[in-house]
């Protein structure tokens, strides 16, 4: 029994921490966020590529690193720590998994090596985990797609898109395909790329994911968001602690006041168990543990709440300066907001656990 | 991450399971209220002989003499939890006094007290808190003055669990009132509860039961040889045992088991023909607590691995008491809400027995948030020692008179 990251994983986190610390600086993040156009951070992606991140989940046979969900979660945590404004969930997680699990031999040979090398980026348009909002959906008819997806991610700079249709199946669509229109959506978190898609009889290649693999894909994304939340939430705590040590009022550091100490203690007490829960959930997916789905959903919901609490309290510890644009704490606050809601917020995600629980304990009730 | 066990560990697990099957009839039905029952003591002796209880205490002092092996200890705990078998006696003598004596006791103290304590023949109570010394324990004023070969003790202790059934007390007593600060000048003394001058008064709490006592000490004579560690060093001596107590207070297996009971309750109970489990507001609260219980279980596994490797994770360790006691209370709170009017029945009402005494837990677990270092003290510890925030400014203390 060894409930810990491996030496390799710890090293991966440490090295990436150094790389992202120097690349994804506050100045760099601000420059990305201030640009209004659809942006792809080529320099950051190049840094990630040099580190091998695009190939994390691509099998070795196709030129990737063939690593595990837990390894990718370790990476996602660092990206969250540094609010890295580069694509990840689409090209590094969803596309390699969806293509690896459901692509034909030809599709895999054609796309996976290019994904692994970082030259091909694939976005993700999948409404199902967050729920089909106001009836907006993509419908598949004889291999062609029609409909809308209001919240597609990592589309900026992508050549292709993995699209989930209402019937639960997945398809590959060319970014330049006829009938596809893409409208960038500005979200509260400018470090993430979101777009609204309208598809009008668009040609698509089918990916044959089994129902259980579709769920695994969902859970893997939840784990990555949980990891991002842990990273950005932890960084918010660290900022609050540093500030509370340095800032003086009434002739002493504000961190010596119990009222401030307890804000920080609560953040730590909430975030710290989330780390272990995240590892367990990620490992559960890698090892095929029976409670992997439940754990992944719990990890997402738990860390969405914990990081949101940390984001609010960290701003409070900073006082007035905490809400200024200049300090930049808001980039972490907004990253937490985004990650908490994307692919289903805490309340919806817990409801999904309840349905799993009901289905397991009382099959006749099913998903109530 | 590797959640599997080695073949040797799996073999050991099989042995523990086999033992529990073979000795099912020996599991005591009643453990005794104030003192361990005969059956409980027999069970304890069996477990020590088997190497499952008092594992790391040397055989010479009545223990099992097993080498330190955190994974085996966890396997034993897990298997006993599955079999719903008590893992021997759990009391402050075994969890706090014995480790202290092993670390700092004289040879005579070890030989006199450890074995009978482990067997359950000698029951101890802890004399730490005082009416005027709670969170600020080091300001305690129960004092001892020298008289020939004895100390003579006067003062009062409070929150003394099992004092009414105890044979002995281990206590913090001020022996050097003129010491330069409040931490120095305290000694760790052990003495018989049958000594003349000791009066025990039950302390009834909001649950209706007297889980604690007050102990009044008037001219109680204790031989000077019954000091543990150096004179005036009692604060240091006790800190080694407080560490043991904090470790006891968060059992994630127990929280998960309660969570399962709560979900079963929510499935079984209904209002207006709708199961509580099918009501989204209740269900969300339940799922939130289930997530927290799972997080604490994973957190405990992380700490276990670290301990097994001889590593310390100070921040991770420091949050356990705060989070675990809060979680337990929240679980009881939801259960009370789930039961509604039906859960208001108390004492001997059938409903209360049938429903896991949730109302009692709801009150008792509130006490657990306070006992052993309040939630607020825990947050101070997390902030100052875990996160490295500057120490709170303490008002200057007048020199003790």
From TrEMBL, chain A:
Residues 30-119 form the Acyl-CoA dehydrogenase/oxidase N-terminal domain. Keywords: FAD, Flavoprotein, Oxidoreductase. Gene3D superfamilies: Acyl-CoA dehydrogenase/oxidase, N-terminal domain, Butyryl-CoA Dehydrogenase, subunit A, domain 3. Its cofactor is FAD. PANTHER family: ACYL-COA DEHYDROGENASE (PTHR43884), ACYL-COA DEHYDROGENASE FADE28 (PTHR43884:SF20). It holds the Pfam family Acyl-CoA_dh_1. It comes from Sphingomonas chungangi. One of its GO terms (molecular function) is flavin adenine dinucleotide binding. This is Acyl-CoA/acyl-ACP dehydrogenase. InterPro entries: AcylCo_DH-like_C, AcylCo_DH/oxidase_C, AcylCoA_DH/ox_N, AcylCoA_DH/ox_N_sf, AcylCoA_DH/oxidase_NM_dom_sf.
UniProtKB/TrEMBL annotation, chain B:
GO terms for molecular function: flavin adenine dinucleotide binding; oxidoreductase activity, acting on the CH-CH group of donors. Residues 125-220 form the Acyl-CoA oxidase/dehydrogenase middle domain. It comes from the Bacteria. GO terms for cellular component: plasma membrane. Keywords: FAD, Flavoprotein, Oxidoreductase. Residues 232-386 form the Acyl-CoA dehydrogenase/oxidase C-terminal domain. Belongs to the acyl-CoA dehydrogenase family. This is Acyl-CoA dehydrogenase family protein. The lineage of its organism: Bacteria, Pseudomonadati, Pseudomonadota, Alphaproteobacteria, Sphingomonadales.
């Amino acid at each position: 029994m060894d409930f810990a990251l491996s030496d390799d994983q710890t090293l991966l986190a440490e090295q990436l921490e150094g790389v992202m610390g120097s690349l994804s600086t506050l100045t760099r993040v601000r420059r990305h966020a201030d640009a209004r156009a659809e942006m792809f951070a080529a320099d950051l992606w190049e840094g990630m590529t040099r580190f091998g991140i695009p190939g994390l989940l691509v099998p070795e046979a196709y030129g990737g690193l063939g690593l595990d969900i837990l390894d990718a979660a370790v990476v996602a945590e660092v990206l969250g720590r540094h609010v890295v404004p580069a694509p990840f969930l689409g090209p590094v997680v969803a596309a390699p998994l969806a293509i690896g699990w459901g692509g034909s031999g030809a599709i895999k040979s054609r796309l996976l090596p290019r994904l692994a090398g970082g030259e091909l980026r694939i976005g993700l348009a999948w409404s199902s985990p967050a729920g089909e909002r106001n009836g907006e959906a993509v419908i598949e008819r004889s291999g062609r797609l029609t409909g809308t997806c209001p919240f597609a991610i990592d589309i900026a700079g992508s050549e292709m898109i993995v699209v989930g249709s209402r019937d639960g199946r997945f398809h590959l669509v060319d970014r330049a395909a006829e009938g596809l229109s893409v409208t960038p959506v500005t979200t509260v978190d400018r470090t993430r790329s979101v777009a609204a898609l309208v598809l009008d009889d668009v040609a698509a290649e089918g990916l044959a994911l089994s129902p259980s693999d579709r769920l695994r894909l969902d859970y893997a994304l939840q784990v990555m968001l949980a990891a991002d939340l842990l990273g950005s939430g932890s960084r918010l705590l660290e900022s609050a602690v540093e500030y509370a040590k340095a800032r003086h009022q009434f002739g002493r550091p504000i961190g010596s006041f119990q009222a401030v100490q307890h804000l920080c203690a609560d953040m730590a007490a909430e975030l710290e168990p989330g780390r272990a829960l995240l590892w367990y959930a990620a490992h559960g997916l890698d090892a095929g543990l029976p409670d992997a789905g439940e754990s992944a959903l719990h990890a997402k919901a738990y860390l969405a709440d914990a990081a949101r609490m940390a984001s609010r309290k960290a701003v409070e510890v900073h006082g007035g300066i905490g809400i200024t644009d200049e300090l930049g704490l808001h980039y972490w606050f907004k990253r937490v907001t985004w990650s908490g809601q994307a692919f289903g917020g805490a309340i919806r995600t817990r409801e999904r656990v309840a349905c799993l629980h009901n289905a397991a304990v009382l099959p006749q009730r099913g998903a109530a | 991450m590797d959640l599997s066990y080695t073949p040797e560990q799996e073999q050991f697990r099989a042995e523990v399971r086999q033992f529990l099957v073979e000795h099912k009839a020996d599991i005591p039905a009643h453990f005794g209220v104030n003192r361990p029952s005969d059956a409980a003591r027999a069970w304890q002796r069996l477990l020590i002989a088997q190497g499952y209880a008092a594992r790391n205490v040397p055989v010479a002092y009545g223990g099992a003499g097993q080498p330190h092996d955190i994974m085996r200890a966890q396997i034993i705990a897990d298997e006993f939890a599955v079999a719903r078998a008590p893992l021997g006696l759990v009391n402050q003598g075994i969890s706090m006094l014995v480790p202290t004596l092993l670390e700092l006791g004289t040879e005579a103290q070890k030989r006199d007290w450890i074995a009978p304590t482990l067997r359950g023949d000698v029951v101890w109570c802890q004399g730490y808190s005082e009416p005027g010394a709670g969170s600020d324990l080091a300001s305690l004023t129960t004092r001892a003055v020298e008289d020939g070969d004895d100390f003579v003790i006067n003062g009062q202790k409070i929150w003394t669990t099992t004092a009414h059934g105890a044979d002995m007390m281990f206590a913090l007593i001020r022996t050097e009132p003129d010491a330069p600060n409040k931490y120095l000048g305290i000694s760790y003394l052990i003495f018989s509860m049958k000594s003349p001058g000791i009066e025990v008064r039950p302390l009834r709490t909001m649950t209706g039961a007297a889980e604690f006592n007050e102990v009044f000490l008037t001219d109680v004579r204790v031989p000077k040889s019954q000091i543990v560690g150096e004179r005036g060093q009692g604060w240091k001596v006790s800190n080694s045992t407080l560490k043991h107590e904090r470790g006891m207070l968060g059992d994630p297996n127990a929280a998960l088991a309660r969570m399962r009971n709560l979900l079963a309750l929510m499935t079984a109970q209904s209002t207006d023909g709708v199961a509580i489990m099918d009501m989204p507001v209740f269900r969300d609260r339940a799922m939130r607590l289930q997530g927290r219980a799972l997080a604490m279980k994973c957190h405990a596994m992380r700490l276990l691995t670290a301990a097994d490797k001889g590593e310390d994770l100070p921040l991770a360790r420091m949050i356990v008491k705060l989070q675990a006691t809060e979680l337990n209370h929240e679980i009881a709170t939801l259960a009370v809400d789930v039961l509604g009017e039906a859960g208001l029945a108390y004492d001997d009402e059938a409903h209360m027995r049938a429903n896991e005494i949730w109302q009692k837990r709801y009150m008792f677990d509130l006490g657990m948030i306070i006992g052993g270092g309040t939630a607020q003290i825990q947050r101070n510890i997390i902030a100052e020692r875990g996160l490295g925030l500057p120490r709170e400014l303490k008002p200057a203390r007048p020199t003790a008179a």
